[in-house]
Write a structure and sequence with these properties.
The chain is of the alpha+beta class. It has 2 domains: 189 residues, D-amino Acid Aminotransferase, Chain A, domain 1, CATH 3.30.470; 117 residues, Beta Barrel (OB fold (Dihydrolipoamide Acetyltransferase, E2P)), CATH 2.40.50.140. Strands 4, 5, 6, 7, 8 and 9 form a 6-stranded mixed sheet that branches. The radius of gyration is 21 Å and the shape is globular.
Amino acid sequence: MRRLAKSAVPLLATSEHAIQSNRLRKRNPRQPDLPFDPMPLRIEPCLALLKPRAPTGADWLFEIKWDGYRLAVHIDPNDVRVITRGGHDWTHRFPSIADAARELEVHTAILDGEAVVLDKSGHSNFGALQRSLGGRGGKRVSTESILMTFDLLYLDGHDLTGSDLSLRRHLLEDMLMPAGNGAIRLSEEVEADGAQLLEHACKVGLEGIIAKQRHKSYRSGRTGDWLKIKCVQSESFMIVGYEASTVARGGIGSLLLAGKRGYELVYVGSVGTGFNGKDATFLRTALDRLRTETPSVPLKGKNMVFAEPTLIAEIEFRGWTNDGSLRHASYKGLREVQDNAAVFDMTNRGI
């Protein structure tokens, strides 16, 4: 467990390690399994609810918010599987993480974490992660990625989802050494006041923090047990077209964006910054292939080109206008089609 120093020091700086139990010994694979609880093929992830301020009280623990791809790593005696948030098997896309999982001193386990690529400052960089995978639809494998692990859902025949987070964290910390430098690392708990931690995270250029209730079981979905508080907001939105321009690079003046409400799409405005000429040319080519005369949201305009809602963009923004549009939006990159579940749900804003 890491304590936040009063002085302005990097949030990821080394500090004294917490006292830990003895490390688990690797099981003998020739011994028979004792599966008290069947190992699930997949567990729907617990998701963090966006809040403007950090909660207070001793029931909350805090971690850094990582900007990458949510993954579950399933370990059993015969194989390792790396599963995306949407349930797709991406073991082949993250070979370093899979290899590191095979070396862990456990027999069976399910790890919950975020695949990231770190920059020189130790901050996660979503664009670098996308590039390591070859961009949206790319076929490259990411050897630079590491898994920042923050939960343990299953261990050696025991389903831990019904246990308190504090117990799950204790077992996870026994499994992963603090301040490790391998492809699977511990996303450490930071002992600090939430508001002060958020202020410090923003000063050193992090995306934000995560708050979790210590004594809650693992519940799938956006229940409010986990909260995310961001320095700058960043969410995924569907691209539903673009505004054509004869003067803008790549012929795109702005991208038209939508969130979701149930099974419907809701227009949230446009974004015209954050992409360069190469990005714009790629986006226009991709969107022209998806061109349709019927908009997926109620829109009309002389220069608007509508597209089937297929491409998902990660957008950084500063807030919302009164009419439900994004303020000061900036394009960060495309997400994979497997991330459909990540498209921003407008009901989180009461819209």
